[in-house]
């Protein structure tokens, strides 16, 4: 009877473990709004996936990566300030997704589940996707950790030292897109970035090195998933938002507690 | 004759018709310290960025020795405060670094005690030394230093210049420095190149400080220096293409 709960826990822990380290990069590189924009466009990916009858995860990944490329190209042209550009893309992509979904009359989509996530409804296949995608993300992060970090610390120094900065930047976007695709089931498009940012921001208070921050972010994300699931089971609250509330609660504790790690 | 590491050949760069650099010729050889001076906006940093491959020249060519290996020290280092990073971890990011070299390099620069410090809490002088350490760990035969003494007090500046000179003596590498303070840097320099969109004059420090083009930009040495250093008196006007408009047929600074 608790099968679905166990599956939710396993899936949630998988997503949180991946979202933590990547969230650290999102925080370091100030990509929060960028992540939001990609996440919002994921709904359009879902609609297109249904429309063309292709795997939804694949559709989301393709759309996110495509949008990331468009963003980078537009950014380089300096037509308009980046935050404005992101705002335009984020909300038009979300609206376009909602409009597209409304055209799919023969398919009933649980819109709320896509917007806010439905951890309790994840299937065995979803768990495979989460762990397959998660493993890919973590492996790539480990393999390319040094160039990713070197680029994050200082792009020009990294470039002069011979790191292929453009390729690494693309890789990071691809990773963010992957995480969004696998995390969508858990917290939904509107809350995905919070699962990346909040644990990472909490971890900042407790860490002295980048690796520490990335790993502690994973742990805090997992704690949030456990807490959120428990709260959801206990009080019948929506799971996705409960996980985020739990993460925010941990953030508050970390930043108001008197424990101060020496810099 | 020392090996020539880099030569700029008629380098020019312009944006939207505005000329930033025009017809720059200069070269750096092994064991030579070249200092690039010029007023703000004269294109010093742009020239450095072209050398580093961070920016493309619109005309001319940079000829690099095939064994050229650059150690670059940027003007300043901004690391996002959300990124926890110790000096050791920062230096370990050098591509292909031999991590056993980190401590000896820090010792050489007199900052071994900072190895476990967070990069965010370093003072100006300490940051400059950490950046210099990073440049050295890249095993360069050319050090490129963009305003290496920025944010460092006068005593610290003298120390840093001495350090740079001793590194040159030890490694035999070439050094290209950007500077706009003149007096301290002069003593440690083999060649000074004074630029202001174009090369105004170049040569030994003695030669350059006596050159009318230099004096036009920076004042006569020995005159009221506090004013002379900061006042940039242009005695000539640059055309849109960066050339000098004057009656001087050599298109050079008006003397």
From TrEMBL, chain A:
It is a multi-pass membrane protein. It is found in: Cell inner membrane; Cell membrane. Keywords: Cell inner membrane, Cell membrane, Ion transport, Membrane, Transmembrane, Transmembrane helix, Transport, Zinc, Zinc transport. SUPFAM superfamilies: ABC transporter involved in vitamin B12 uptake, BtuC. The chain crosses the membrane at residues 6-28, 40-73, 85-107, 128-148, 168-201, 213-233, 239-257. GO terms for biological process: response to zinc ion; transmembrane transport; zinc ion transport. Belongs to the ABC-3 integral membrane protein family. Involved in the high-affinity zinc uptake transport system. This is High-affinity zinc uptake system membrane protein ZnuB. It comes from Marinomonas ushuaiensis DSM 15871. The lineage of its organism: Bacteria, Pseudomonadati, Pseudomonadota, Gammaproteobacteria, Oceanospirillales.
TrEMBL record, chain B:
One of its GO terms (molecular function) is ATP hydrolysis activity. The gene is znuC. This is Zinc transporter. The keyword 4Fe-4S does not apply. Keywords: ATP-binding, Cell inner membrane, Cell membrane, Ion transport, Membrane, Nucleotide-binding, Translocase, Transport, Zinc, Zinc transport. One of its GO terms (biological process) is zinc ion transport. PROSITE patterns: ABC_TRANSPORTER_2. Transmembrane segments: none annotated. PANTHER family: METAL TRANSPORT SYSTEM ATP-BINDING PROTEIN TM_0124-RELATED (PTHR42734), ZINC IMPORT ATP-BINDING PROTEIN ZNUC (PTHR42734:SF9).
């Amino acid at each position: 009877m608790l099968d679905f709960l166990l599956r939710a826990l396993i899936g949630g822990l998988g997503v949180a473990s991946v979202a933590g380290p990547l969230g650290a990069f999102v925080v370091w590189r100030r990509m929060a709004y960028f992540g939001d924009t990609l996440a919002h466009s994921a709904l359009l990916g879902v609609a297109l996936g249904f429309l063309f009858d292709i795997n939804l995860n694949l559709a989301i990944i393709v759309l996110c990566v495509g949008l990331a490329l468009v963003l980078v190209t537009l950014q380089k042209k300096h037509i308009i300030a980046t935050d404005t550009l992101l705002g335009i893309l984020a909300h038009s992509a979300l609206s376009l997704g909602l409009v597209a979904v409304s055209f799919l009359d023969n398919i009933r989509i649980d819109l709320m589940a896509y917007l806010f996530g439905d951890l309790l409804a994840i299937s065995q296949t979803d768990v495979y996707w989460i762990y397959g995608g998660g493993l890919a993300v973590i492996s790539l992060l480990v393999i390319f950790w040094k160039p990713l970090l070197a680029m994050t610390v200082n792009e020009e120094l990294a470039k002069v030292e011979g790191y292929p900065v453009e390729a690494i930047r693309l890789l990071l976007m691809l990773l963010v897109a992957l995480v969004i695709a696998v995390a969508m089931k858990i917290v939904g498009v509107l809350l995905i970035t919070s699962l990346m940012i909040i644990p990472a921001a909490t971890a900042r208070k407790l860490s002295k090195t980048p690796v520490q921050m990335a790993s502690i972010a994973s742990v805090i994300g997992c704690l949030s998933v456990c807490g959120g699931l428990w709260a959801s089971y206990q009080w019948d609250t929506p799971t996705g938002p409960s996980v985020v509330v739990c993460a925010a609660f941990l953030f508050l504790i970390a930043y108001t507690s008197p424990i101060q790690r020496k810099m | 004759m020392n090996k020539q590491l880099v030569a700029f050949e008629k380098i020019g760069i312009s944006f939207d018709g505005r000329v930033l650099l025009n017809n720059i010729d200069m070269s750096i050889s092994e064991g030579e310290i070249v200092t690039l001076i010029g007023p703000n906006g004269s294109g010093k940093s742009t020239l450095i960025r072209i050398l580093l491959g961070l920016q493309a020249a619109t005309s001319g060519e940079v000829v690099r020795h095939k064994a050229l290996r650059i150690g670059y020290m940027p003007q300043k280092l901004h690391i996002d405060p959300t990124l926890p990073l110790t000096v050791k971890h920062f230096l370990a990011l050098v591509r292909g670094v031999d991590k056993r070299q980190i401590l000896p390099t820090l010792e050489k620069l007199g900052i071994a005690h900072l190895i476990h410090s967070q990069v965010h809490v370093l003072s100006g002088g300490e940051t400059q030394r950490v950046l210099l350490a990073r440049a050295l760990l890249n095993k360069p035969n050319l050090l490129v230093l963009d305003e290496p003494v920025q944010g460092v007090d006068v005593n610290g500046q003298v120390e840093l210049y001495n350090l740079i000179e001793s590194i040159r003596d030890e490694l035999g590498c070439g050094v290209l420095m950007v500077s706009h303070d003149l007096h301290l840097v002069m003593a440690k320099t083999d060649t000074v190149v004074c630029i202001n969109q174009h090369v105004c004059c170049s040569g030994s420090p003695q030669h350059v400080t006596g050159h009318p083009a230099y004096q036009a930009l920076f004042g006569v040495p020995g005159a009221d220096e506090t004013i002379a250093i900061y006042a940039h008196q242009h005695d000539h006007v640059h055309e849109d293409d960066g050339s000098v408009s004057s009656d001087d047929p050599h298109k050079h600074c008006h003397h």
